[in-house]
Specification:
Methyltransferase, Cobalt-precorrin-4 Transmethylase, Domain 2
Length: 303
């Protein structure tokens, strides 16, 4: 299809009512993005897929029912979540094997992005079924675009772990990545996570994006240390949260004496491994190099 034909096809698909020619939906698994807040953000293609599907696998059938009711979508559904995927997956795979058209949606945004679906896509591919996607809204690129931070390279770390030690280790693992960092966080854990991020990453430029596309959308931009102080004083935050953090700066690397002092202080209250991870995260250094120096300091102290 040449450019003119593509343009004509797009114009035809964009025409409303009876003048809009919709190609038949092919059998297979269709990954469909749904709005992250504003119902107007769904695409025409997503609506076509959902209306033509034989079955919709959704994270929560009650959440999908609101979207379906708003757009007049009437199609059988099956709950597909972390808790139900063991029971639901065989039914969905059987539907695919029978030549059915199955749509996969999450509660909001692009399925599989910190949501269930990876196993189902694997199963569909293993069964030789077609897998395609009707793309659309996602909080990750939206928060990144609104943050004012570098967008040429970024690392998405999903949800930060709930436990303190696991969270600090996850931050440490991402600290040296030469890219903008993006994390999801639950609102009730935001203050403590920002404290850990500021402690380990220092005053990197950052942004906290909240309630994206919704009525009370907010993006607060400041160094991590300032954001930690703000949300410590205002912990009663609500909504879906995305944290965006600038890449490590060239001026973060400490001199040898500063590194050794940081390691000695950290090892006074933690294991060598944990102390090395914490210090590496704080200065954006490679953990193996800091760990090797920590072992040297421990041997020197013991001799």
């Amino acid at each position: 299809m040449d450019v003119e034909e593509q343009s004509q096809a797009s114009d035809s698909q964009a025409t409303g009512g009876e003048g809009r020619r919709k190609p038949p939906l092919a059998p297979g698994l269709h990954i469909v993005a749904t709005p992250i807040g504003n119902l107007g953000d769904i695409t025409l293609r997503a609506l076509d897929v959902l209306r033509a599907a034989d079955l919709v696998a959704c994270e929560d059938t009650r959440v999908f029912a609101k979207l379906a009711s708003h757009y007049g979508i009437s199609v059988p559904t099956v709950a597909y979540s972390d808790a139900t995927q063991d029971l639901a997956e065989p039914r969905i795979v059987r539907a695919l094997a029978a030549g059915k058209r199955v749509a996969l949606v999450s509660d909001a945004g692009m399925p599989l992005i910190s949501d269930p679906g990876y196993r189902l896509v694997q199963a569909a591919i293993a069964g030789g079924h077609a897998v395609t996607s009707a793309p659309g809204p996602s909080a990750v690129p939206m928060a990144l675009a609104l943050s004012g931070l570098p967008t040429d390279r970024f690392y998405f770390g999903g949800f930060l772990p709930a436990r303190d030690g696991d969270r600090r280790r996850a931050i440490g693992a991402a600290a040296g990545v030469p890219a903008t960092l993006v994390f999801f966080e639950a609102p009730h854990r935001l203050p403590e996570s920002l404290v850990d991020l500021a402690d380990l990453l220092g005053p990197r430029p950052a942004a906290v994006a909240r309630e994206l596309t919704k009525l009370f959308e907010e993006v607060r931009r400041a160094p991590l240390t300032e954001l930690a102080a703000h949300y410590a004083a205002h912990p009663d935050v609500k909504g879906e949260i995305v944290i965006v953090i600038g890449p490590p700066g060239e001026d973060q690397a400490p001199d040898g004496a500063a590194l050794d002092q940081a390691l000695r202080t950290a090892m006074a209250g933690a294991s060598v491994k944990d102390a090395a991870s914490e210090v590496a995260a704080r200065f954006g250094l490679k953990r193996r190099d800091v760990y090797a120096r920590a072992l040297e300091l421990k041997r020197e102290a013991a001799s």
